[in-house]
């Protein structure tokens, strides 16, 4: 699964894109929340009017999509999609905000689009989206632990950061480690702070002699 998100305006252009049936074999507007209109153009027009009336926010929408990997791995069921969406909106502070959920099927692969209005009508301001990509990474990792979809390499490289010892981090990348014989293992931390040496870069705290993914990802 590949998540992607951005803040944006121009809701009418986005609505036209999401309603595109020429490039998609199937299109379904699965959920509309927080709008009088039951179609995308109408809902986005309402949210744009709220943004102009209550705030000076131009990027009044938060657009989010989830795609399976090109090889077909990482596909989610409809229930898993909705679970993931609920986790994302809670983590980003968008719970209760108006939203639309659209499902497409393209090249026999189902993918999902979610668009939230960032405008909090009661507070008269836009929901701040600070560190949203970091938060999405956190949610995606936790979701993957629960449902086991395949993640892109960038997510897998940092998956479980901080949960493995130095030795296991290098082992996952195929870099053999050894410990000098004059160092005894510390049973309290399983050798985490002892000077393991990697054949790729010489030592855990030394500059690499050649590329070592474990060193780059976890140092």
The poorly predicted ranges are: 158-173, 177-219
Rg, alpha carbons? 23 Å
Q: What is the helix content?
A: 25-40%
The oligomeric state is single chain
- Level-1 CATH class name of the largest domain: Alpha Beta
Total count of domains: 2
- Count every helix, treating DSSP H or I runs of 4 or more residues as helices: 7
CATH architecture of the largest domain: 2-Layer Sandwich
**Largest sheet report:** 5 strands, antiparallel
Mean pLDDT, as a whole number?
77
What spatial order of strands do you see in the largest sheet? 1-3-5-4-2
Q: Can you offer a commentary on this structure?
A:
- The protein has 219 residues and is an alpha+beta fold.
- The protein folds into two domains: 2-156, 2-Layer Sandwich (BirA Bifunctional Protein, domain 2), CATH 3.30.930; 163-219, no CATH class.
- Helices cover 32% and strands 21% of the residues.
- It is built from seven helices and nine strands.
- The chain has helices at 11-18, 40-54, 78-91, 132-147, 153-157, 166-172, 213-218; strands spanning 2-8, 26-33, 61-67, 99-106, 109-117, 119-120, 125-126, 177-178, 197-198.
- The strands form three sheets. A five-stranded antiparallel sheet has the order 1-3-5-4-2, with helices on both faces. A two-stranded antiparallel sheet has the order 6-7. The protein has a two-stranded antiparallel sheet with strand order 8-9.
- Helix 1 (11-18) runs antiparallel to helix 2 and helix 3 (78-91) packs antiparallel against helix 4 (132-147).
- The protein is globular.
- It starts with a strand and ends with a helix.
């Amino acid at each position: 699964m590949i998540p992607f998100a951005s803040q944006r305006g121009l809701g009418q252009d986005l609505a036209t894109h999401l309603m595109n049936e020429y490039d998609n074999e199937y299109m379904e507007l699965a959920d509309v929340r927080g709008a009088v209109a039951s179609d995308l153009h109408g809902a986005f027009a309402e949210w744009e009017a709220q943004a102009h009336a209550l705030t000076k926010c131009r990027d009044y929408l938060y657009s989010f999509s989830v795609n399976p990997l090109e090889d077909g791995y990482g596909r989610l069921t409809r229930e898993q999609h909705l679970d993931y969406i609920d986790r994302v909106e809670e983590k980003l502070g968008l719970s209760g905000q108006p939203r639309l959920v659209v499902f497409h099927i393209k090249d026999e692969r189902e993918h999902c689009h979610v668009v939230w209005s960032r405008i909090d009508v009661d507070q008269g301001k836009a929901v701040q989206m600070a560190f949203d990509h970091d938060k999405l990474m956190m949610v995606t990792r936790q979701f993957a632990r629960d449902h086991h979809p395949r993640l892109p390499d960038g997510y897998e490289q940092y998956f479980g950061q901080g949960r493995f010892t130095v030795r296991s981090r290098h082992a996952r990348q195929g870099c053999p480690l050894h410990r000098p014989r004059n160092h005894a293992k510390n049973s309290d931390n399983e050798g985490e702070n002892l000077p393991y040496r990697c054949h790729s870069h010489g030592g855990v705290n030394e500059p690499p002699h050649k590329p070592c993914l474990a060193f780059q990802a976890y140092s």
